[in-house]
Amino acid sequence: MKIFVENNPNYLNEVKYIFSLFAFNKKIAITFVEAISDSELSIGHLEHNSIKIDLNFYVNLKNGMYDHMIHFKKSSFIELADGTHDYLSTAFYLVSCVQEIRSKAVDKFGRFQYASSFQKRFDLIETNLVQICFDSLSQLPILSLNSGVVNGNSRIFLSHDMDSIHGSIMQDGFFTLKKFRPDQLLSVLIKNLIDKPSWLNVDRIMKMESEADFTSTFFWLVNKGKVDERLSNSDYNINDVKVRSAIESISKSKWENGLHKSASDDSFSVELDKLKTKVVGNRYHYLKFNPEVDFQKIEDAGLLFDSSLGFAERSGFRNCYGQPYRPFNFKTGKAYNFIECPLNIMDTTFHNYLKLNSSDLEKATIDFCEKHKKGNVLSVLFHNNYISDFKYKGYITAFRNLLKYFYESDLKSISQSEIIKEYYYEY
Ligand SMILES: [Zn+2]
Fold it and tell me: N or C end of the chain, less CB within 10 A?
């Protein structure tokens, strides 16, 4: 389909970007043409355009107005002057995380907070609103896409952030003492001291996953110890023989390694050197990153994948979209080359933030997957230490039950490399 976008500097790049994502989502082949007379569909703010967008929205963006309170006065859609929904601009605002740009609503780690978000305000954290915009747009008679796209089952991007491997001896040990189980304490000590750190459980995780026909990605920290009063990196040395052997066994398998970018000031290139194994993707430790600044660093490092875009304190869609995508670069007006696979569900959200237990996590994950069963990639994170006996033993049960649920519901796993291949598109 030949598409013409009005040559207006306020929105030309933004509209091309979001319409390309829409076309990719709906599997329509498009080309952008320079003259309206060559087009089958035109987009702009003028009377003659077949899809109309709100010029004011883009002018406000160019003037540095990013807050959702400005753009979404009454409803969760950007509206045209006649009150109809501007689906393209709404999707652009959400997918591109515009609400986070220069936001002061950040926590002590500098992370954008759910409490101040668009999603909290409209109670939409579990709503794939961008997909709703795309589906509504595809119903417009001018697009005549009423047949729609038949989506297959959603896939699961499963991952493990390797923050701690030595914590077992103290934390599991203390747990057994609290429960007056000296026999278990002995077993914790023997396992950790004679065999290997119990939380260096890569082989155990891979075995559990392979039984459900699943694979996953392990994100490794290359820096150890405290960063400052509040932040710590890992409790292991990335050059430890047992750690190296775990990384190598992953490299040789269908599972994948990734960098867990530490909270230290090291650049990506320094950390990737320290990791000493080739990886394509990253996740920021503590999910501590700012898309406006840190997406550029992922791009500059030559990485092709990231899965950090989630709220630590709440499950759901941080950009209201259920598929991996190429983020928009506001400096260049183009898409970044890497693929962002937003993070939807994390064990510590339940344990540390919501103060809920492992069965709440299990139930919430199943509910979320059931709600978004078709056409999405749902990203689920279990830290390695939550897949262990003793202190976190409820979570290993939840993990096992979820693998069984994924298997029985035909929600297959998808890897970083597969996502890069499948979700990269030219425009
Ligand atoms: Zn971490």
Answer: N
